[in-house]
Amino acid sequence: MTELSLRTRESFDAVMRKYADMVYRLAYARTGNTFDADDILQEVFLRYIRADKTYNDEEHRKAWLIRITVNCTRSFAASAWNRHRDYEEPDENEGREDPALKAAETKSDVMNALLELPEKYRTAIYLFYYEDMSVAQIAGSLGTTETNVKTRLSRGRDMLKEKLKGAEFDDV
Question: Which of 5, 69, 144, 172 lies 20 to 30 Å (CA to CA) from residue 17?
Fold first, then answer.
């Protein structure tokens, strides 16, 4: 069995299969919109191809993709187009069969509450619980300290608990 090269061009299909769902879910968690998440997914992998980097290991590649996804969502949120668009759009999920979105819908109350959190808490919680990243990995990906990540996780959990109060999640 041959080992996959960590060069981007030699392993793009494998990387796309492995990380596309993660990038999409993170983009969706940060934007709350499937169309925007699709655009960001495309932009992240275009940047991946253009970068043509060599990665030390798969963790380095994953951290790089997460960092680029976070940067793309920030750029998108700050764009003039996004600031001036009409937020009363039709239901973008109508008639779409999206596996990542279907998984999110099964936990819709929690995901909806998560999407209502401020971006910095939403991102930390998403990476910790949905991508199973450690506090150290999240800190490295977001360019912040571990203490800051722990604070975001704690405050985010408190906010989620408050938002889900009265729902069937009270025992959790």
Answer: 144
